[in-house]
Amino acid sequence: MGRYDRLREFRRLDPDRDYHRIYRDMALLEFPWDITMGIQLGFYRTFAVPGISALLDRTGEMTAHTQRRLDNTAILLFEAIHYGLEHERGQAAVRQMRRVHGAAMQRAGTDRPWRIPDHEFVYVLGAFVIPTLRWLDVYAWRPICCHERTALFRFYQEMGRLMGVRGTRPRCRSSRPGSTRTNGSISATRKRTSASGTPPAHS
User: Fold this and answer.
1) pTM over 0.85
2) Where is the composition biased (Polar residues) (predicted)?
3) Band of pLDDT at residue 145, cut at 50, 70 and 90
4) Whole-angstrom distance, CA of residue 14 vs CA of residue 12
5) Cβ(138)–Cβ(191) under 8 Å?
């Protein structure tokens, strides 16, 4: 397979319909290290929300069982990425995520409503999208295209729907090329492109 063959293949697909195929190949073949790094950064970002960090502190999962919590999150997430959200194993991973979060609320006590607020779930899902896009814009070996942006967004939007989360955006504003980029990241992308060869013209 040539250097940009997979990108050309992505552009022949419909990112709203084929989002899993595109995102799976991004995560497992095209940008495996970068996607993993983006997900890790997004995971850390969730601690910035007082409600989320308070819950994690109350359950003790991130303080007493840190590595287990990280491993379990990675296993469930990449199970869904690998098999897809329409596959039995992907859906089983999502059901387990729901059970884990329900159990976390029970362990945390009763000073908050049992249900984790939807806006906190939406933030966590967004944390797996935006930091990943920003990382890819600056450090990936090539610029990502609008199909890849849309597919990444659609995957986590569908995950939220399966988890019963309300309030996810119906459309991906970040699907426009460059919408998550800073001037510095655009400059870095241009330098990287000129140094590594010319990809197909449109992004």
Assistant:
1) no
2) 176-188
3) very high
4) 7
5) no
